[in-house]
Amino acid sequence: MRICRYTSSGREAIGVVIDDRVVHIDGATAIVPILEAGPERWRVLQQQYEDREGTPLADVELLAPIPRPPKFLAIGFNSKDHVDEALNAPATPEMMELRCSYEHLQKAFPAPRFPAVFNKQTNSVAGPRGPIWIPRDSEKVDYEGEAALVIGRRIRRADEGEAAAAIAGWTVTNDVTVRDWQWNTPQTWLGKSFDTHGPTGPWIVTVDDFDLEEAVIRTWVNDELRQDGRLAEQTLSPAQIVAAVSQVCTLEPGDLIATGTPAGIGAPFGRYLVPGDRVRVSVSGIGEIENTVIAEPKQT
């Protein structure tokens, strides 16, 4: 089932996406309670609304499915080809400095015991068609197309089986990154958390309707394909990620975890985003988001 948050005629609503239309779910005010209800409820809702007329998707504005998730976490270095491109990037002064930093990390942690996890502040969440801002503080804004899992039940210290059962759905995200703010401090979240730098959507696909083994992540910038990778080929599986994180903190319904980006980011080649660019991220089996890049507007 595909569940979306949208506006139509100026009113916000929650709906089921059926083919090319969205059908309002009576009485629903948020997506998280639906995710918590579980697969039986999802099937009932799908059957209940699939024959209703609804509103054409072209006539609604899709919003971020979960506008303020309790936590917005992300996994770094979860794709071998992404790590390799950082280590083998062209020998520009900037990339040589970065490569040196990675080599120090590799020497310090030759066999890391835990996944590389960072958080994106929830203010970074943006809609599937909203703008991505180039902040006044930097011109080194990069894209990272990813699939994000959505937690559907409260868990703590889960094993992998319990962790897999806690994943309620999936959505598309772009882990937009301000590279100099990321690289010039050991605190990764600074470069990951600028406003508008976490577009998500276009909806959430429940886990019972998503084939992880077939999912492909692709990113285009101005219709040029930049990233193309399979979700199933990531180093850590979704269950391993959720199980590991749950040892540290309680995971709650509505938490988002972006599971990692494939190779093809802009930084190794200095191909940073500029105003006017269009960034499209697609995950097969879910859908796609497309965001136009603009200069950060002046504050009023």
From TrEMBL:
InterPro entries: FAH, Fumarylacetoacetase-like_C, Fumarylacetoacetase_C_sf, Rv2993c-like_N. Belongs to the FAH family. It comes from Mycobacterium asiaticum. This is 2-hydroxyhepta-2,4-diene-1,7-dioate isomerase. GO terms for biological process: small molecule metabolic process. Keywords: Metal-binding. Residues 72-293 form the Fumarylacetoacetase-like C-terminal domain. Residues 1-65 form the Rv2993c-like N-terminal domain. Signal peptide: none annotated. One of its GO terms (molecular function) is catalytic activity.
